[in-house]
EGF-like domain-containing protein (Lutzomyia longipalpis), 526 residues
Amino acid sequence: MTLTAHRTEIVNALYGESCEEGTQCSHMLTGATCRNNVCTCEGDEFEMRTYTKGRCRKLLPLHAECDEDLDCDFGFDRESVVCKSGTCQCADGFYHRGENICRRISMNVGDDCIVNSDCQGGNHECISRRCEETSETSERKEVEVQTDFIDSPASFTEFENATTESTSNSYRQLLGDPCVNNGEPCQGLAYSTCIKDRCHCKLGYYPRNGFCTAELGEEAASSDHCANIVRNNKCVCAYDSFYQLNMRSCIRNVLALNASCAQQSQCSPFLSMCDNGPLIRRCSCHPFKIYDQTSQMCVLRQGLGEFCEKKEDCTLSNTACQPDNTCACDDGYMEMDGQCKPVIGGSCETTEDCAVDETECVTDSADKEDETAGEEEKKVCRCKVGFTHHIKNECLPIASKYKDECKENEQCQPLLGPLGKCIDEECACDEENHYKDEKCNEKIVLGEKCSKSSECFVTDNSTQVECRNDICQCEYGYYSDTTRIKCVKSSNKNSSGRPSPLKIITMLLITAAFLVTSAAIKEAYY
């Protein structure tokens, strides 16, 4: 920001430069925004915008109708695409690589290239960025680490068809100088224009070293007006480099898929993406593509994994479009031999349709009870008799005896009930439950409430305990030993070996009755 007499002037920011508010980027018009304190272009999945010639523009794909070259999406090289006969097409000297990418044709040995198809002058192959005779080539490397940015012409020793502007003593206005003819160039300042009585660079040019410097693809009369290469009076990148999104600097290409990358442009020859890997960004295929070694590019998958935007786009049966825009097996199906076959519970016609081992195609039990039973019965994949359905889409054998071999609890529960578990690969009851009446039951000790006798737990002789009056009790003839959690058989003597109090009282009553009776008889006779 620049301070003036009574106000703060908001200074425009170029694409990719820092900003504080959106008005600094508004000169780029629709789609320009200040995001994360950087001027950029934005849009949505239906209307992406690209920075070109000082504006955020919606560019048209190849074969779309156009009015001028500037309408066409150029795929990281403005020389590659033109508006010809009213449609966007690859420019002369370029071929259609795929999608919206046009690549430069290299005809001679030693010409620049990235992929083999760039070399079209004969029996040539691309080796280390140069077209070579196939017989003289060796196997190329598949991985390279190269993400050089090219920000100035210092990297180059040659400027094609370019001249250096000489210094003269003639009057030349400077950027920011006052001017009077709005819309007209400022005197002696190439590629400038008078806007609101001040000298500015015109669209497609930016201030650099006191000159108006051409953005990539714009006219440049000399190297003074281009930070890269001047070729055919235009500021461009070298053949082995791509345009950066800011249209002011270039970035060098990479040699192959899986090479590290910094920008999407570097991956474009392979029709791949610059993916955010765990440690480093690399050129890799989209999820809906697979790498074709012959063509050296990522091609669309067919069937499983193919690109989609809706379910109807998926050509393989029993597939659905996933959030990552790839076709995958629908719910109720799993991949098997390149097809999507029904899992347990999935619809089927024959047992061969079912994907899971030990399943068979049977009539759905729920369908049998349907009121529309007159219609064709629905068949589904179910586990065979003697097998149980595990949540991992497996059919596992049901245990036939206590301590039988197992992998999951579900194998034990048909035999031992819902409390049965697979412990150390054996069907058993855990410590909180006990095995009785061929089931695992909750442990309920003597004197506690119960609902059935199998719940009542004693340490031995489990047949001597029962659930009576909703309480766990010993059977008649036994008494409870709660200390040892067992039922003990009753005897004539108590545990001390002496007559019990009950026996003593009974004997006293019998003796008293005998004495009373004897006294009565004696009185009757005497």
In short: DSSP finds three helices and 41 strands in the chain. The mean pLDDT is 83. The two ends are 144 Å apart (CA to CA).
